[in-house]
Design goal:
This protein has 91 residues and is mainly α. It contains five helices and no strands. The relative contact order is 0.09.
Length: 91
């Protein structure tokens, strides 16, 4: 079995575990058509497909934290105080 067929098979199997409302976004992400869709799909999967959990994410060390979807305008592009201290100490 080729890598491409194996990937397609895994995606098809994985889709069966995704809530229907998020399937199109996931498929768009797996086709490489949208970086935004890929971030959204990953964050949703990480939080068990709970939008509020994505918005209120506590995984401060996650590389996607600053660009996670569903943030309020106030949350967008802000770094929590703890992260600022770590950045200052490592500089």
């Amino acid at each position: 079995m080729t890598c491409r067929n194996n990937r397609k098979e895994k995606i098809t199997k994985h889709v069966t575990h995704i809530p229907r409302v998020y399937v199109n976004n996931y498929l768009k992400a797996t086709r490489g058509k949208s970086l935004k869709a890929a971030v959204q799909a990953m964050c949703l999967e990480c939080t068990g497909y709970q939008k509020l959990e994505v918005r209120d994410c506590t995984a401060l060390a996650c590389p996607l934290y600053a660009v996670r979807p569903y943030q309020t305008p106030r949350q967008r592009h802000t770094v929590p105080n703890e992260s600022k201290e770590v950045t200052k100490q490592s500089a």
